[in-house]
Amino acid sequence: MSTGDCGNGGGGGCECGCCCVHNKMEDIKPHPVMEQLPGVQYCINSPPPLRSGSYSSGVPALSNDSRYHCLDSKLRRLRFLTPLSMVPLMTFTGLGLYYLGFSMYLPHYAKAKIKRRVCDRYALLFSVAFVWGYAQILTSSGAYRNASSATQASCRTDRAGLITGAPWLYIPYPFQWGRPTFQAGEAFAMMAASFVASLESTGTFLATARYGSATPVPASVVNRGVGWLGFGTLLSGLFGTVTGCTASVENAGLLAMTRVGSRRVVQVSAGFMIFFSLLGKFGAFFASIPLPIIAALYCFFFGYVSSAGLGLLQYCNLNSFRTKFILGFSFFLGLSVPQYFREYQLSSGASPVHTHSRWFNDMVTVVFTSHATVAVLVAVILDCTLVREDDEGGNDSGSHWWEKFVFYNRDVRSHDFYKLPCKLNKLFPPV
């Protein structure tokens, strides 16, 4: 720890009028760039070291006795996430949805020479309106008349009579589809889905805070957000929606594209969404957007969210083989395991998990088909169990940087970024 020194040797105040703070935390600096990786036994121009005596030490083994070295403080027992384990979580929150975008995206290039930020702020609005109008012209002129059914379903703007069949005014009410039913198997499957949604939403929270130029999200704020997601899922069940609530990955990417991290903008947008949801024609009008337009937007949004996770690597030591293994192994399993589950279901029509309990099969399938969930679970487990060589403080994984943001009151800027409006902060106090 470094101590402040302004030239005053006494224990009283400073003659210069400044405020000396002793035992101040040392400034955190990025890990240095190294042209050669350390820890290599031999390189190209030197032979390997020759052993003598017993060769029994050549058998590789992982020592589990030192797995608690990363839990030498109460703080780390409360928080297992580090920048290293958050990288796959945030990256696969967007990267795990790649199949929704590029498969229907038509590459294009547009270059604007406008000094004002009009094209940055309103690029999404202008591009959607232009392509949407072009699709309407093609639909009205009969360009899709002889096209395949798949092309008509994805490119036409009047598919299934959405606008003509929607009512002008529709007010939802609780239990409109009948009384609720309860089955234990479905409840357990929904618990697994809620667990997956909580992890993926956590990645969205972290990416949103990153692009909103805020400090890293404290643990209590993440818990608060997950709790409100549960309350929204409860309302969704009461009003008969087919899906629950989760944080919008698209909004996080839109925030990065427009660089508008204002909470007031989100509040006004939510008010407009609630109001216009009562107008059936208005909702059907937006539902007529062709799917390739949505897929093109996904390519931009998910790319921004994925890059937010990769940005946290600046706090990790990329010269460490332990860091490289955790990062690469979590990325590999985060891509391969969900893809295996999907391909197995497409080929056989059933889950690769075969037990006598259908609810257990659904639980395992829900968890292992989520890219972000698989990646973060693997990263957290490896980060907490693999032996730390010459890294007792956890600096290689970035935990020394993350510690001061775990609790709400550790950083004075948390109150400015994460305080709830309308005095709700007193009802839901952070810790």
Q: How would the blueprint of this fold be written?
A:
Blueprint: H1 74-78, H2 83-95, H3 118-121, H4 123-140, H5 149-155, H6 162-165, H7 184-211, H8 219-238, H9 249-258, H10 263-276, H11 280-287, H12 291-311, H13 321-348, H14 358-368, H15 371-385, H16 399-402, H17 414-418, H18 424-427
Helix pairs in contact: 2-7, 2-12, 2-13, 2-15, 7-8, 7-9, 7-14, 9-12, 13-15
Would you summarize the structure shown here?
51% of the residues lie in helices and 0% in strands. It has 431 residues and is mostly helical. It holds the Pfam family Xan_ur_permease.
Overall description:
One of its GO terms (molecular function) is transmembrane transporter activity. Its main location: membrane. The protein has 18 helices and no strands. The protein has helices spanning 74-78, 83-95, 118-121, 123-140, 149-155, 162-165, 184-211, 219-238, 249-258, 263-276, 280-287, 291-311, 321-348, 358-368, 371-385, 399-402, 414-418, 424-427. It is mainly α and 431 residues long. The radius of gyration is 26 Å and the shape is globular.
Main features:
431 residues, mainly alpha, transmembrane transporter activity, membrane
Shape: globular
Mean pLDDT, as a whole number? 73
Helical proportion, percent range: 40-55%
Distance between the termini: 26 Å
Structural class: mainly alpha
Q: Estimate the strand proportion.
A: under 5%
Largest sheet: none
Cα-atom Rg, whole angstroms?
26 Å
Number of helices: 18
Number of strands: 0
Following the backbone from N to C, one meets helices and strands in this order, namely HHHHHHHHHHHHHHHHHH
Low-confidence segments:
1-5, 7-13, 39-78, 101-115
